[in-house]
Amino acid sequence: MNRNQIQSVIERVYAADEPGIDDLLFLLELKKPRDIQTLCGFADRVRKNFAGDEILLRGIIEFSSYCRNTCNYCGLNKNNKQLERYRLSREQILDCVKTLTNTGIKTVVLQSGEDDQLDANELAELITDIKNRYDIAVTLSVGECSRAAYELWKQAGADRYLLKIETSNWLLYRKLHPGMSHENRLRCLLDLKELGYQTGCGCIVGLPGQSTKDLAEDILFFKRLSFDMLGIGPLLPHQNTPLANQPHGDIELTLKTLAVTRIVTKRAHLPANTALQTAGGEAALRRALCSGANVVMPNFTEPSLKKLYEIYPNKICIFESPQQVIVNINSIAINIGRVVQLSRGDAVKTKEPAAILA
Ligand code: SF4
User: Fold this and answer.
1) Is the CB of 114 inside a 6 Å radius of any atom of ligand 1?
2) I need a surface site. Which of 33, 176, 325, 351 has the fewest CB within 10 A?
3) What fold does the segment set 3-349 form as a domain?
């Protein structure tokens, strides 16, 4: 296909209420750097028109590395007996939140494994405490929980929730997540949306047994459920897991998935994922920001502990402070004609519609 034909597929996907799976597949399978650039450049313009030029910062605090689950790729899975575990006290979490707010960032993401000792009432009290002390948005990412717990935390003041589907292919999901079910994952996502959370989802690129068609289906799933945030990153298998010998997810395919997701979903907040930065360094971060991404998440976990939150090895944030990340993002933003924004950065769909793509 020549460039005009590629452009016309991109425009068809952009304009469609429900893009055709063959068109999505075609874009995800582009191989030539020039064609991939055409795709990413279009996604960048969609990002500009629907989400603006701001790069939003969300500060993440990983407050417990305990997890009851055994996801086949994740270093936090409970069968990884070599990992030293930690659980932050309420005071330690509040200290991290204070450091975060001192930078001016207006969103805290409280993340953990699925910790059996998580007390729903204690988390609710913590959320209320944070909301009383600071004018910031609270995002939770603590996994699959009961609707009652989600409701309690929403009433306590939580604004957003992140729960990636990882893959919308339920057979593949079952294979990679022993003891978990796609049905419950979906139930959680629907509960979160019904309860009024700004809800984030996402997928992993490069899972063993995953086809490009699966990724196209993931994108259609994101569109149908109209998520507010979507995290897309490459598989980085941990050495102490059943997937230890699997290759990393492909950076080019991850960037294409990000770009097509932007073109299809238009307004969703898309982070330049930490796994992508770990796999591809600063170059991948820049490319993600120029392929539809508009969010970066500096890590405010206590420095001595963040290396223990080892979902995958060599996480990039271990080696730099969040303050350094912010300085770095600022200089990248200037370089690519963007601006770092410290505000809450709520779901774009709650704002006035943006201009139609020129
Ligand atoms: S991916 Fe999440 S739920 Fe699965 S083992 Fe890791 S921390 Fe636990």
Assistant:
1) yes
2) 33
3) TIM Barrel (3.20.20)
